[in-house]
Amino acid sequence: MRPVELGHRKDHPLEMTFHSHPYYEIFFFHSGRCNYVIGPNVYSLSPGDLILMHGMTLHTPNPDTRVPYVRSMIHFQPEFLHEFMNRKYIAPLLRPFEELRNYRLQTGARKDEVERLLADMAALQDSPEERAYERFLLRFIDLLYVVGELCRSPMAADAVDGVRSEREHHVQRVIDFIESHYAEDFSMEDVERELHVSRHYLARVFKAWTGWTVFQFLYQRRINQAKTLFLVDGELSVSEVSERVGFKHLSHFSRVFKQWEGCAPEQYKRSLAASPRSWRS
């Protein structure tokens, strides 16, 4: 894998799944209709929206399949900047990812500039010219400067959050509840009592907005936290991790983990132990 990779103007249908990864991501929404869930936040995207992602946070899109869902994604390893640039210039470029972590920007008047940079990067990434990838990286650095400038602008803040629809507001409140209580044993009746909204309505709106049931989202949040614990503390046993993320029975944890990750938690833990330490740091 190259240190920076671009998927430009992709419009193929997705098999929707919550996922995380150990690299940073820039997501740009060209066109379509899409709700995007990132950790404890849910966004209704508009063309020109740009999302910064800190990788390891659980995220998934829920696009409207009746219209083309056109997006560009850049995945990059932040470590490469230390090899590519003078140290004093690196911190400002990474600050938006490290301080904001997962953030939606509205590019506004700079939408065309961002799209031109992405198009230039796509052409250079596919070019057979000898120095094309170095020129690709220079365009990427330019894009990082644009992102940094957008983050400094008060107009870039999520101003639309103040005018969220009622349904989006309820979905956000359910996600906030899960984020606060995912390690506890709770039911939809508990959610209803906490939010003072019918559990049947919440379940229906959550599924329509995110594409997932409340408990599918809960289990993915627990499994993602389990993966994080395995990654940062290799001394924890599978049963300790199971208990910490909210499963009352180890067998249930193992079954759900394998369902989502395709392997047993013990196997996942062993694979991390065998991985190079540099990847895990």
Automatic annotation (TrEMBL):
This is AraC family transcriptional regulator. SMART domains: HTH_ARAC (SM00342). GO terms for molecular function: DNA-binding transcription factor activity; sequence-specific DNA binding. It comes from Paenibacillus antri. Residues 172-271 form the HTH araC/xylS-type domain. InterPro entries: AraC-bd, Homeodomain-like_sf, HTH-like, HTH_AraC, RmlC-like_jellyroll, Tscrpt_reg_AraC-type_HTH. Pfam families: AraC_binding, HTH_18. Keywords: DNA-binding, Transcription, Transcription regulation.
